[in-house]
Amino acid sequence: MTTLRSFGRRVAFLAKSAFDQAAGTLLTLILKAVRHVDRIRVSNAFARVTRTFGPWLPEHRLGRANLTAAFPEKSPEEIERILTGVWDNLGRVVAEFAHLDRLTVGDPLNLPYVKYDAAAIERFNRIRDDGKAALVFAAHLANWELPAIIAAKFDLDALVLYRRPNVGAVADAVIALRQGSMGTLVPTDSNAPIRLARALEVNRHVAMLVDQHYGKGVDVTFFGRRCKANPLIAALARHVECPIYGTRIIRLPGGAFRGEISEQVPPVRDAEGRVDVAGTMQAITNVVEGWVREHPEQWLWLHRRWRE
Question: What 3-state class would DSSP assign to 83?
Answer without folding.
Answer: helix
